[in-house]
User: Which sequence fits this backbone?
């Protein structure tokens, strides 16, 4: 077990692509860290550099305090689980799992014991003499995990290990992975672009975009206090609503009406651009009729036509279209492209996704009064994506004094 | 429908096999009955086989054939494996050109190279030596080897090599224990193809040799005489032809499963 430190690590591929730039990251001993980001942002490259499968162009990588930039993968004592599982097709499950132990020149009895133990943990005992070709996807995945855990490495690296499984199995395996990591207490770096995995699995989540770290933090912290537009839009499902806003007469002019701003944000706005973006999560809306007096003061109300109601039983997802400009920025376009939504027709105006209480009597096609919590609204600078409501790492809404 | 296909198959098989059967039949006939036109010999004899193995000419040619074909195959497959590994694995400048040129060589009409090669080999003093045949065989079989092998290597998932390295293997161990077993069927396939090419060649064998020193069987056949100068050598030639066909048939039968396994090894993918 060991801690892993990346110190200004960059990667430039021979063809000139800079896949990773100046990444600083400290992973504590025993920690479960998730790297998440859109496709092509450099997650696998970071992982491969930690593994030693890719050279580090500049910067230092330290494992257990020791600089390992120039060490071969086999001298780093790290195990890796690949997206393709990479099981050796010519070997049985037992031989696959014994392979790292055989290379480490352990004696036969020890190898058998370790393989059997790992197989028991992963419920592979009955499959030990099969070839990988005769296993199901989930079983192959478990063999790949088994091969990684047999030799008690200093750390596990996993590159989208669950992405080849179907949705149901993925949920099951997620708990297997998580339990296994808790039990072994081995430092783990896990790459995914599934944000549910990111939110549920790790102790900390690292959000990567275009080769640079955007924010590192516990899942809840990233959700509540996103450092920038990209993180705000990436974390959360359905994702945060973004609307265009401009400052006029000391208030924020938006499609939801003019919103008051507190002194803290006002102080920041003196040198901020005229055009801004506000971000509101779906759960920070509520049916105005259901908001009590005390809460009402913390927010503001607006009226908009209801486009669609999806009842989930526990709550209702209600879609509105509001008049006004749509928010635009490079980050938002990238997020839309990653979600595959860049060319969905959006019609005029901006779309809002809200999550209202199940008791709401909201009806499709009618105009409805909706309340929004001002203490939870984020304000972003579209030129650099920075979250203007963030103060000492905490977001406090636009009305904070 | 099935019947018609069966019939068609039978026609094709008979068409292809008749000349072979005829030669086999000739090889078992006595000199007297050679020209009787019967497919099944009226008098069976092993005399022809005895004759060819007694003549130094044939045995010597057989040794040449085996030696030259084996050496050429080994070298071509080893070089081809390395080149194909590079073509499949690495991105290097001139990769397209390499593949293109090797295709070009494979397409080149060999006949047009025979007289220049003759002159060159005379100058270099390798005319009528094993080396004089091995070199052109390698030249013309290497593209074939590179081609089949690189198609093969491209199907091997390279994550396996990375996984082996992570599991603690050196580069050499990763190749030996993980990649080589998967590549073996491909190497077998191309070795067989190359061997058959060298074994069957007549053009170079006849043009670049002048004595028994390096003449291979296909070339030597045309110089055959019977047991004595004045005997009709047809029986002996047929027997020799049968003898040199046997290794090929054995090869193909024996490795057939391997070849097929090789050609479908894409199935290894998880
Ligand atoms: N061998 C290479 N040579 C040149 N560029 C590369 C190479 N490998 C990756 N890249 C580039 O580096 C960037 C990061 O790639 P990487 O594989 O790390 O992305 P990723 O975040 O893992 O994406 P995904 O989620 O799709 O796996 C991409 O733009 C990619 O095109
Ligand atoms: Mg990747």
Assistant:
């Amino acid at each position: 077990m060991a801690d892993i430190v990346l110190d200004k690590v960059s990667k430039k591929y021979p063809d000139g692509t800079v896949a990773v730039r100046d990444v600083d990251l400290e992973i504590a001993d025993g920690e479960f860290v998730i790297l998440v980001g859109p496709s092509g942002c450099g997650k696998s490259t970071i992982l491969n550099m930690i593994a030693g499968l890719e050279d580090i162009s500049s910067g230092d990588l330290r494992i257990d305090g020791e600089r390992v930039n120039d060490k071969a993968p086999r001298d780093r004592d790290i195990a890796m689980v690949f997206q393709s599982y990479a099981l050796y097709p010519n070997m049985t499950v037992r031989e696959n799992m014994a392979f790292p132990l055989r290379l480490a020149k352990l004696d036969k009895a020890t190898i058998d014991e370790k393989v059997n133990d790992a197989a028991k943990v992963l419920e592979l005992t009955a499959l030990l003499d099969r070839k990988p070709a005769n296993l199901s996807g989930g079983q192959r995945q478990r063999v790949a995990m088994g091969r990684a855990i047999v030799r008690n490495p200093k750390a596990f690296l996993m590159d989208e290990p669950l992405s080849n499984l179907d949705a149901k199995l993925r949920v099951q395996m997620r708990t297997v992975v998580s339990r296994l990591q808790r039990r072994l207490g081995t430092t783990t770096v896990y790459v995914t672009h599934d944000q549910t995995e990111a939110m549920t699995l790790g102790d900390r989540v690292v959000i990567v975009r275009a080769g640079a770290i955007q924010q590192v933090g516990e899942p809840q912290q990233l959700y509540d206090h996103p450092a920038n537009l990209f993180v705000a839009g990436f974390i959360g499902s359905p994702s945060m609503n973004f609307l265009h806003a401009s400052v006029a007469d000391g208030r924020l002019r938006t499609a939801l009406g003019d919103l008051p701003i507190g002194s803290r944000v006002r102080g920041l706005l003196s040198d901020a651009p005229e055009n801004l973006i506000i971000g509101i999560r779906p759960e920070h809306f509520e049916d105005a009729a259901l908001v009590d007096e005390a809460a009402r003061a913390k927010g503001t109300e607006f009226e908009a036509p209801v486009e669609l109601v999806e009842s989930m039983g526990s709550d209702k997802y209600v879609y509105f279209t509001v008049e006004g400009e749509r928010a635009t920025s490079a980050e938002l376009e990238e997020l839309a492209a990653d979600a595959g939504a860049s060319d969905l027709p959006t019609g005029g105006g901006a779309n809002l996704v809200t999550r209202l209480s199940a008791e709401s009597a909201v009806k499709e096609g009618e105009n409805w009064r909706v309340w929004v919590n001002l203490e939870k609204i984020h304000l972003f600078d579209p030129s650099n994506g920075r979250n203007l409501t963030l103060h000492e790492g905490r977001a406090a809404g636009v009305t904070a004094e | 429908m099935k019947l018609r296909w069966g019939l068609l198959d039978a026609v094709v098989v008979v068409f292809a096999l008749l000349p072979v059967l005829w030669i086999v039949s000739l090889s078992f006939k006595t000199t007297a009955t050679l020209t009787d036109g019967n497919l099944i010999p009226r008098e069976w004899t092993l005399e022809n086989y005895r004759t060819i193995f007694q003549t130094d000419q044939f045995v010597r040619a057989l040794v040449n054939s085996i030696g030259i074909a084996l050496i050429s195959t080994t070298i071509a497959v080893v070089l081809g494996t390395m080149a194909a590994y590079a073509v499949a694995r690495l991105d290097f400048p001139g990769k397209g050109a390499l593949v293109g040129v090797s295709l070009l060589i494979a397409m080149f009409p060999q006949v047009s190279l025979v007289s220049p090669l003759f002159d060159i080999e005379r100058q270099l003093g390798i005319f009528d030596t094993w080396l004089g045949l091995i070199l052109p065989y390698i030249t013309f079989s290497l593209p074939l080897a590179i081609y089949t092998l690189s198609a093969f290597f491209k199907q091997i998932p390279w994550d396996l090599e990375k996984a082996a390295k992570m599991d603690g293997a050196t580069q050499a161990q990763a190749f030996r224990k993980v990649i080589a077993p998967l590549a073996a069927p491909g190497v077998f396939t191309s070795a067989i193809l190359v061997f058959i090419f060298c074994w069957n060649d007549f053009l170079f064998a006849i043009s670049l040799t002048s004595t028994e020193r390096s003449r291979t069987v296909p070339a030597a056949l045309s110089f055959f005489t019977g047991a004595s100068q004045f005997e009709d050598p047809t029986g002996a030639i047929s027997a020799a032809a049968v003898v040199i066909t046997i290794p090929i048939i054995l090869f193909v039968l024996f490795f057939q499963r391997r070849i097929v396994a090789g050609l479908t090894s894409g199935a290894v993918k998880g």
